[in-house]
Structures are given as structure tokens and as C-alpha cells.
Specification:
CATH topology of the largest domain: outer membrane lipoprotein receptor (LolB), chain A
CATH class of the largest domain: Mainly Beta
CATH architecture of the largest domain: Clam
Number of helices: 6
Shape: globular
Strand content: 25-35%
Low-confidence stretches: 1-15
Number of domains: 3
Structural class: alpha+beta
Oligomer: single chain
Radius of gyration: 21 Å
Number of strands: 14
Helix content: 10-25%
């Protein structure tokens, strides 16, 4: 109990240092995402996202931006043959902005809810859930240093995984990567097992306001467990679903023999 009181007191002192600017954290994310994610947070709200994806979404949110993005992409991908004909080389796709990560997590302390936006089962979906679904147990005698900040471990059983996280009271934001939040300090590292690791690789402040998700009206609202279950069904039946639409995964018509979706190794949440 004394340790928690000390943590809270330190957070109150540190809060003044971050009152005028927002915190920005870069996280290296393992497993099936395998990309860099960013958290921009103030004491009231935050957004967890991939910067390239947000740039592409910002361009595609207007007709002018969409046309400009397409122009940049085609210019980067084109190849002019000796006879003057123009082709497009798939090996050059990485030379232009593209969206590969669809996940956004928006947290709002005002209503005590988070909203997830993602691409699942061949569609864009969103859903909300309350903050209080995560309950933490602080492990007072387990500490480590991350990015020069002393961090304390906490544990929670959440949506099918046991999450071990390390948070720093030096930065008194009750936030962290993905959906993780609710501790008296910023979460700098999280490990959910099976390679699902989110570790801060950069930390600073920014005058940039917390971003918003573009084109939210394009996301179909749903329920978390159903969205995840539908996605697993889609992945496990992808070949037959596409075949019904006249699309063959193998050009010669032979079976694609796609591997089964393993929720333990491919899903952040396994409780559906």
C-alpha cells in the first residue's frame, strides 16, 4: 500500500511537467503486426496507430488527396520499357505510401471507453468497450529500466491472455500500447505471450494534438467477440469464399492448402 501511495505522489509531481505537451511513444510490436506503432496521449484521450496508415487514410479522406496519393504510387511503381510501353513492377510497391496495418485504438477518459477500428473478415469494423474490463495487480518487487525510466511490473488476465506490463510513474498518464491502460503511469512494455510483445523504442513530447481516425463512417459497428469469430471463420474458409466469387487462389485451379487460423498465435485476444 505504501508503494502505491508513493507512486501516486510521484505521478502528481510529474504531471505538471507534461501538462503543456502531449506524450508520444513509439512501440516496436511483434508477432503478426511486426511494425512500429505510435501512441499520442494527453490526460483525457489518446490514439494508438501506425503513422503510414494514418497518412494514407488522411489522403484517401478527400477526392483530391486520393488522386494525389494514386499519382505518387503509380509514379513510384511504373517501369518504362525500351519500346516506350509502361508497366508496373510489384517489387517496387514499398517505394510509395501504402497501408498495411488497419488497427486504431482510441481511448477516451471522458466516457471511460475505448474504441477499436480495424479490418477484419474482409471489412472495416469498429466496436467499443469500457476501461474497467482490465484489472491490474501491481508486482511491487519487480522493476526494470526502460528508456532511462524505472518501471514497475503489473499483471492482468485480459481477454484470454495474461499480460505482463512495465509502467513508469515518471510519466503519470494511465495509458499504454493497444488497449492497455489504467495504471498510475505510462506502460512502456507489454508481453502477452506467444510473441505478442510491445516495447517502447522512443519517447518524447509533442505539440501535435491527439489525432483522430479518418472516415469513421466507413466502419461498420459491431460486437468484439462476433467480429473476431467471423474473422477466424473467414480466414479458415478463404479459398471457398473466393471460389464462390469466381476467384481462384492458384491460377491452375489446384487447392491453395491455406494453413488454419491459430487464434493463440495470430490473435491478441483469444476469448471469443
Amino acid at each position: 500500500m505504501n508503494r502505491i501511495i508513493i507512486i501516486v505522489a510521484a505521478s502528481i509531481v510529474a504531471l505538471a511537467a507534461f501538462a503543456q505537451q502531449n506524450v508520444v511513444v513509439k512501440y516496436n510490436v511483434g508477432n503478426n503486426y511486426g511494425k512500429e506503432m505510435v501512441l499520442i496521449a494527453d490526460p483525457h484521450k489518446s490514439l494508438y496507430f501506425n503513422t503510414m496508415s494514418q497518412y494514407v487514410d488522411s489522403c484517401e479522406s478527400t477526392p483530391e488527396g486520393k488522386a494525389k496519393l494514386r499519382e505518387i504510387q503509380l509514379k513510384a511503381w511504373r517501369v518504362v520499357q525500351p519500346d516506350g510501353t509502361v508497366t508496373y513492377d510489384g517489387r517496387k510497391l514499398g517505394l510509395a505510401p501504402e497501408k498495411h496495418i488497419f488497427l486504431y485504438v482510441e481511448k477516451n477518459a471522458g466516457n471511460g471507453q475505448l474504441t477499436v477500428y480495424d479490418y477484419k473478415a474482409d471489412g472495416l469494423f469498429s466496436y467499443t468497450e469500457p476501461f474497467d474490463e482490465i484489472e491490474w495487480e501491481i508486482v511491487e518487487d519487480s522493476v526494470k529500466t526502460i528508456l532511462d525510466h524505472q518501471c514497475i511490473m503489473a499483471v492482468s488476465a485480459y481477454h484470454g491472455r495474461t499480460w505482463k506490463v512495465w509502467f513508469t510513474p515518471d510519466i503519470p498518464l494511465q495509458d499504454g500500447p493497444w488497449k492497455l491502460r489504467g495504471l498510475p503511469g505510462l506502460i512502456l512494455q507489454a508481453d502477452g505471450g506467444d510473441g505478442f510483445v510491445m516495447e517502447a523504442s522512443g519517447l518524447g513530447v509533442t505539440s501535435q494534438p491527439v489525432p483522430y481516425v479518418y472516415s469513421v463512417d466507413t466502419y461498420e459497428k459491431g460486437e468484439r467477440k462476433k467480429i473476431l469469430a467471423d474473422h477466424e471463420y473467414y480466414e479458415n474458409n478463404l479459398e471457398s469464399i473466393l471460389a464462390a466469387q469466381g476467384i481462384k487462389l492458384n491460377a491452375d485451379g489446384s487447392p491453395a492448402d491455406l494453413p488454419q487460423f491459430d487464434r493463440q498465435k495470430q490473435s491478441l485476444e483469444t476469448d471469443y
